[in-house]
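Quick start: what a row looks like.
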Amino acid sequence: MPSLLKALPVYATFIFDIKIRLYAPTQHRSRAIYKNRVANLKKMIEALNNFNIKKLKVIIGLNDDYSYQMKLAPPLSMD
């Protein structure tokens, strides 16, 4: 993820269509890993906020047992 976060700003002027796939792990090994995952996701969204997005597709993979994990996913709206 750090490499992606470094590279994203370079492409901000060239990318208009984005597809994101989020798959929640069945279980995080520790609270620290969970917090790191959430922090990285927030950083990615902050970087994408600088893009001139025309089309955004978000695919979220859930399973029946752990669907509560995606409560942190913010609603997305495009004008």
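That is the whole record. Residues 31-48 form the longest helix (18 residues). The longest strand covers residues 17-23.
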